[in-house]
Amino acid sequence: MTERVVPEPQRRRRKPTKQGTVLSEQVIVATALRLIGQHGAAALTVRRLGAALGADPSAVYRYFHNTDDLLLAVADELIGRAQHGLALTGDWRTDLHAIGMRVHAAYLAHPQAAQLAAHRTTGRDHETRAVETILGVLRSAGFPDHEAVPIYHAFIDQALAFAAQDAAALALPPPARAADLAVWRVRYGRLTPATHPNIAATAPLLITDMDRSGYPFALDLLLEAVAARLAKHGGGTPSTAAGH
Predict the structure, then answer these.
(1) For residues 244 and 187, what is the distance between their CA atoms, to the nearest angstrom?
(2) Which of 3.40.640.10, 1.10.10.10, 1.10.357.10, 3.40.50.2000 is the CATH number of 96-232?
(3) Angstrom distance (rounded) from CA 106 to CA 163
(4) Mean pLDDT confidence for 35-46
């Protein structure tokens, strides 16, 4: 694809496609997200998009410079879905917990796309709004800027890293995913105290816990550490900031 994107007023398609769809950036992104979910990264081609849209593949050129530009739009769409319906409470810990869980859930709802998009920086509207919101929560809580920025960095990277890892597990073929989970029961559950006393003592807990995402607990750990740092700036104590 070449850089032939034109301004919105000039690129609107007046006639519907063969499938009765009027093309727009939003329609193309939604279609790309659906195709990635069905076929993985291989689906992100102009040819497949054109076929799915019922339009000449070259029509995509009018909206996106290249497939990477389209991927960034898909990534930004996931960020936007994470923010949809978000209502801040004014309590920094409640709000950060909600944002983190929303990011994680939005990516896991589209595991194939999450693997392609979780590590990208889009610079688009949804991402910009998310950065503004999280920094606003931290600064309003009382963090000075030199603390707010690295906390933001750790918070969002944690959410995206867990989202990418959990998405990769969800995207595995069902037999492979089941086999991975069975390792905890079949292998670790049978180790003996004589050879592996720590694993043997905790095996029932491991079998249960490793069957779910570690993100909610990791998020709580991070927020506890953030609360402790906030107390140093006169923003409350770790005990009073512990609820969310």
Answers:
(1) 37
(2) 1.10.357.10
(3) 9
(4) 87
Q: How many CB atoms lie within 10 A of CB 94?
A: 15
Helix pair angle (67-83, 25-39), 10° resolution = 90
Pick the CATH number of 8-65 from 1.10.12, 1.10.10, 3.40.50, 3.90.1570: 1.10.10
Give the pLDDT confidence score for residue 20 in this predicted structure.
55
Which residue did the predictor score with more confidence, 137 or 43?
A: 137
Q: What angle do CA 133, 137, 142 make, to 5 degrees?
A: 145
Structure confidence at residue 2 as a pLDDT band (50, 70, 90): very low
Evaluate whether 117 touches 171 at the Cβ level (below 8 Å): no
Mean pLDDT of the chain: 88
